[in-house]
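From the shared-data thread, chain only:
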Amino acid sequence: QVQLVESGGGLVQAGGSLRLSCAASGRTSSTPAIGWFRQAPGKEREFVAAISWSAGTLGYADSVKGRFTISRDNAKNTVYLQMNSLKPEDTAVYYCAAGYTGVIHPLLPNYWGQGTQVTVSS
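Structure, as tokens:
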């Protein structure tokens, strides 16, 4: 089992920044890829970004490229999502997820965190 705990969400004005953190515990060696998804009200959950524990960044959604940066601290088993130039359309619950890298998709989750709310005001 792998446990994922997110933190760092909140309310920010458009153009501002937030950094999300995801602390992983348990059998993290069983999940080579980790990253973020988000779900806005009335919409499906969508991929945001993913990174490999042993290699580098696996990918970003087109909607966040150039604004969001994913990084990791292996010593702390923690993954971060630095979000800059935030827009109202970035408003969503952000979920940390861990799993495998697929042939097409950067992250196929087996485990999910509880989510953290990010609200961007205009």
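The radius of gyration is 13 Å.
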